[in-house]
Design goal:
The complex is a heterodimer of chains A (264) and B (114). Chain A is an alpha+beta fold and 264 residues long. Chain A is built from 10 helices and 10 strands. Chain A has a 4-stranded mixed sheet with strand order 8-1-10-9. The N and C termini of chain A lie far apart (86 Å). The C terminus of chain B is likely disordered. Chain B is an alpha+beta fold and 114 residues long. In chain B, the strands form 2 sheets. In chain B, strands 1-2 form a two-stranded antiparallel sheet. In chain B, strands 3-4 form a two-stranded antiparallel ribbon.
């Protein structure tokens, strides 16, 4: 039998489709689809989390962001378009766009609350990073960056639904009055973000935002440990997570209550 | 550089911060807090004699002011580490490996966080 060129390609195409449709191939495809999120979810044993007591946080106070930004050499550029931030204050309407606090109660709609990286269980920034500069730590589940690997593509900034990532459009040392020699600065062209004060945790400490809060409005602990203070507070109080419906699994919780209803 | 890359990955990716050498001596894996204490490229030392650093094998590793540059200039590679990293931290806690070891032990066991 002599095949024409056309027939050769027709039979070749059919053979390729049959081959790809095999059970093994389908399984392999299914695995590669499921792998990233499963891999990330299974890595964490201790899972660090933060609870912010919305009723205690004072309007106008910036102790948490001041302490963080000084320690981590986060620059303060005059031009807002070059802004770099690890932790900042935001109105509840911006934090929780699905909820109208003026009608629904709970968090006081007029008072700003701290916003920071949510150290998601299933971080979209990690999934999009083409160089694995952003990754999720196996122990503790902190979403961290290796600035050496960052190529400044800003995919992570587009992927993060919380705006927790900042790009260094300018040399950060231009925006620093004083450099903390204990921590490196970044350079122009890389993205940066909160690291849950990983360097403090390594020494057995707590994140600086938690330590510096004059109202003790933040509680840090292990979300996977049912005996932790954090878990007890979460069990006893209604709380919210930012845009949890997106499936990112944020590790920062906001107690959904007003100061009028009494403290902890 | 191989050592620096190894240490960087250990610290940043795995949170493993203590290096133990063949003599059993411990060091913190940190450029700013450990390496630059002797091999300081960013410090302007007045007296060059105080910069000579002798390795364990008894060889002189050269002028500490130019420790990194010695190799980089030969092979024509620019040192860009110090665009981000500052000089030696010079902290009182520097080299306090006991604290770090305790912290590592605490991090291993669960339920230590309150």
């Amino acid at each position: 039998m002599k095949l024409s060129r056309k027939q050769f390609f027709q039979w070749g195409g059919i053979a390729a489709i049959l081959g790809l449709g095999g059970k093994k191939t389908l399984q392999a495809l299914a695995l590669s689809e499921a792998a990233p999120s499963q891999r990330i979810a299974n890595q964490t044993q201790v899972r660090y989390a933060l609870v912010i007591d919305s009723s205690k946080c004072k309007e106008g106070c910036t102790s948490c962001s001041d302490a963080c930004h000084v320690a981590h050499n986060v620059p303060n550029h005059e031009d807002k378009s070059n802004e770099v931030k690890w932790i900042w204050k935001e109105k509840p309407a911006a934090l929780f766009p699905e909820i109208d606090f003026t009608v629904q109660g709970g968090i006081n709609a007029n008072r700003s609350l701290p916003a920071l990286c949510n150290h998601c269980e299933n971080p979209p920034c990690v999934r999009v990073c083409p160089t694995q500069a952003t990754f999720k730590r196996r122990e503790g589940g902190i979403v961290m960056m290796d600035y050496h690997r960052c190529i400044g593509c800003r995919f992570c900034m587009a992927a993060c639904p919380y705006g927790s990532r900042s790009f260094n459009y300018r040399n950060p040392r231009e925006g620093l009055a004083k450099i903390n020699p204990e921590y490196p600065t970044r350079k122009a062209g890389v993205v940066e973000k909160c690291n849950f004060c990983e360097e403090e945790l390594a020494k057995g400490g707590q994140p600086r935002c938690v330590k510096s809060c004059p109202e003790n409005a933040m509680i840090f602990g292990d979300l996977n440990n049912p005996g932790s203070k954090l878990r007890k507070v979460l069990a006893a109080n209604p709380s919210l997570r930012r845009q949890a419906s997106l499936g990112t699994g944020p590790s920062v919780f906001y107690l959904n209550r007003n100061s009028d209803r009494g403290a902890l | 550089m191989t050592l620096l890359y190894q240490w960087r990955n250990d610290v940043v990716r795995n949170g493993n911060r203590v290096y133990v050498n063949s003599d059993g001596k411990s060091f913190e894996k940190s450029l700013q807090r450990t390496c630059l204490g002797c091999h300081d490229n960013t410090r302007n030392l007045q007296n060059d004699t105080q910069t000579a650093h002798t390795t364990r094998a008894g060889q002189n590793s050269g002028d500490a002011k130019t420790f990194c540059q010695n190799c980089h200039e030969t092979v024509g590679v620019r040192v860009d580490c110090f665009q981000c990293h500052t000089g030696h931290a010079g902290n009182a806690d520097h080299g306090n490996i006991k604290t770090l070891k305790n912290a590592a032990a605490r991090a291993q066991g669960r339920g230590t966080l309150k």
